[in-house]
């Protein structure tokens, strides 16, 4: 396999000059650049990415930290679409992704910053990391460019992106009220994530706007899983006075809620209307079709990649949080009250 020394010998230049040409440096004459590139192609030279990284101090890799409360890993329906579109944009700019495992023995001791530097990544992408993680403080102060989804991470080279969760929750309640519902229950987020917190704010804001009662017994804490929505709804259905509508903070919760309603021999929509949040791809296989608030997951992944590329560029840039709009998707699980 040819080396840069073979290229240098044949071109009659130094190995340092060959290295400059291969790394796109501008301080080499045009004729020399043309000659080195021609000989490189003739010899079939393939640059070693590790060696190139040492020379340029760039590894052309992005580290991905993903922490999942539900232990569903990369099967998580919300995560899949975001990662796919993030990867597409990052790949177009010549970067690869490195996924950091959560279950290594020394993970508790090492910070995000230490693990990122150990792998020499150029930037970080964080998903599902809790706001309370004590390791975030040092990461924000570090010089490592990083972007997060649904985690309010802000610093000189750190920013975050999220859907407009407050507006989405208001949109959901507004639609239920428009359809004649006044007795509305809400299944919330037990993990106190930013999306869960914001959606609860939106729910309460909309209920107050319409002058509707916010009953503590009708706000149930759950996780974002199907099982969580199922268990919370079973508890809700034990009440003598039932709501006419149920707003779930996530679609998987709503799918579980619908199962609990069926088991109670109640009709979804006619007896209790249900609305979710996310618009995951799985919904195409669910009947009746779930009315929900759509998160633009492809857009979120693309924008996250573009923001991280700006942060890694090194030029003066003052990051600001990115908020992505949401949409109401009307289907079959919300029925108008007479």
What does this structure look like?
The chain has 338 residues and is an alpha/beta fold. It folds into three domains: 53 residues, Orthogonal Bundle (434 Repressor (Amino-terminal Domain)); 129 residues, Response regulator (Rossmann fold, 3-Layer(aba) Sandwich), CATH 3.40.50.2300; 132 residues, Response regulator (Rossmann fold, 3-Layer(aba) Sandwich). Helices cover 41% and strands 17% of the residues. It is built from twelve helices and twelve strands. The strands form two sheets. The protein has a six-stranded parallel beta sheet with strand order 2-1-3-4-5-11, sandwiched between helices. It has a six-stranded mixed beta sheet with strand order 7-6-8-9-10-12, with helices on both faces. Helix 1 crosses helix 2, helix 5 packs across helix 12 and helix 8 packs parallel to helix 9. The longest helix has 16 residues. The protein is elongated. It starts with a helix and ends in a 9-residue tail after the last strand. The model has no long low-confidence stretch (mean pLDDT 89).
First CA to last CA: what distance? 79 Å
Strand order of the largest sheet: 2-1-3-4-5-11
Helical segment count:
12
Residue stretches low in confidence (pLDDT < 50, at least 5 long) are none
Structural class: alpha/beta
Name the CATH homologous superfamily of the largest domain: Response regulator
Keywords: DNA-binding, Transcription, Transcription regulation
InterPro entries: Cro/C1-type_HTH, HTH_LacI, LacI/GalR-like_sensor, Lambda_DNA-bd_dom_sf, Peripla_BP_I
Protein name: LacI family transcriptional regulator
GO molecular function: DNA-binding transcription factor activity; transcription cis-regulatory region binding
């Amino acid at each position: 396999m040819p080396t840069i020394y073979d290229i240098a010998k044949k071109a009659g230049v130094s190995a340092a000059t060959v290295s400059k040409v291969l790394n796109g440096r501008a301080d080499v004459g045009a004729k020399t650049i043309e000659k080195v590139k021609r000989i490189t192609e003739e010899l079939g030279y393939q640059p070693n990415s590790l060696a190139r990284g040492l020379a340029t101090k760039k590894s052309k890799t992005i580290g991905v930290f993903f922490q999942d409360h539900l232990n569903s890993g990369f099967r998580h329906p919300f995560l899949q679409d975001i990662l796919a579109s993030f990867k597409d944009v990052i790949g177009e700019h010549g970067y690869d992704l490195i996924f950091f495992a959560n279950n290594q023995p020394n993970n508790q001791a090492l910070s995000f910053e230490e693990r990122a530097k150990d792998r020499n990544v150029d930037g970080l992408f964080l998903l599902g990391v809790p706001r309370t993680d004590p390791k975030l403080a040092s990461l924000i102060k570090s010089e490592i460019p990083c972007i997060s989804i649904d985690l309010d991470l802000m610093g000189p080279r750190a920013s975050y992106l999220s859907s407009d969760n407050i507006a989405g929750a208001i949109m959901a309640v507004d639609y239920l009220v428009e359809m004649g519902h006044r007795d509305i229950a809400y299944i919330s987020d037990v993990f106190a994530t930013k999306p869960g917190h914001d959606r609860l704010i939106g729910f309460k804001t909309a209920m107050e706007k319409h002058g509707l009662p916010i009953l503590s017994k009708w706000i149930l804490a759950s996780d974002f899983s199907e099982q969580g929505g199922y268990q919370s709804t079973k508890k809700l259905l034990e009440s003598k006075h039932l709501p006419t509508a149920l707003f779930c903070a996530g679609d998987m919760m709503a799918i579980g809620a619908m199962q609990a309603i069926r088991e109670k021999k109640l009709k979804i929509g006619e007896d209790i209307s249900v609305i979710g949040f996310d618009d995951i791809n799985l919904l195409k296989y669910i009947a009746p079709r779930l009315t929900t608030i759509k998160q633009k997951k492809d857009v979120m992944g693309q924008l996250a990649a573009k923001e991280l590329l700006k942060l890694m560029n090194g030029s003066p840039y003052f990051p600001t949080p990115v908020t992505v709009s949401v949409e109401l998707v009307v289907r079959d699980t919300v029925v108008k009250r007479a």
